[in-house]
Prior knowledge:
The chain is mainly α. It folds into 2 domains: 1-59, no CATH class; 89-136 and 152-248, Mitochondrial carrier domain (Mitochondrial carrier fold, Alpha/alpha barrel), CATH 1.50.40. The chain is 69% helix and 0% strand. Helix 2 crosses helix 6 (159-193) and helix 4 packs antiparallel against helix 6. It is elongated, with a radius of gyration of 22 Å.
Amino acid sequence: MQLARIYPYAAIKFMSFEQIRKFLIPTPDKNTNFRHFLSGAGAGVLSVFMTYPFDMIRTRMAFETPKSGTSKAHIKDFIKSIYNESASSIKILNFYRGFFLSVVGMVPYGGVSFLAHNYFGTVARTKFAQYTINNQPPPQPKTQNSLHRKPKKKLVLRAWAELTIGGLSGICAQTFSYPFELVRRQLQVSGTYSPNSSVKVSTIVKNIYSSLGVKGFFLGLSIGYIKVLPMFAISFYTYEKLKELFDLD
């Protein structure tokens, strides 16, 4: 189920980011941090909307299987169980429990990740270019034909630099959005113990705060870092290399 979700999620996220960025940043003078943040946030929200039911089913499977003490439950059983819950009169909305909170959390998650990736990439290509940039061919002499050449492409980073930048971007995104993710997960699994009613976000927030205080909203963040660091490093590295391969910059 994770693979069924991550393929369309990543494809939609990176594709929509490029399209939204082209719309919001049509020229270099429009390239601001805020517009870059909006591009990432919009891409994140769109990808979540398209793949949220997969995430809902995956979360429920991970929660209910250990609870039931069996691993024989089939995915179709979880789909039926979620669909037949009476928390919403519109059955399909059962697959979108916690969706609004997920969107709220995805705005900083998607926005910060792409903004941080752009920022760290710019720093690496300017202040630390001698360490991070692959060897480039010597500059060509200017001729009359130079006016017809394609715009200069951005400098290609070395693999370790690209991976590091991607990992740092993931850490930044996870830090800013983790409280929303924590509450969303609890909202998603609320159907297992309250299938006939809709649990309020405020109730979950109060329970977390009354039990552990503010630090309760960051419980498990270190494990989140272990997850997102390689995930973002590899995904952004692959994203940049595929753009380079297909000449999409």
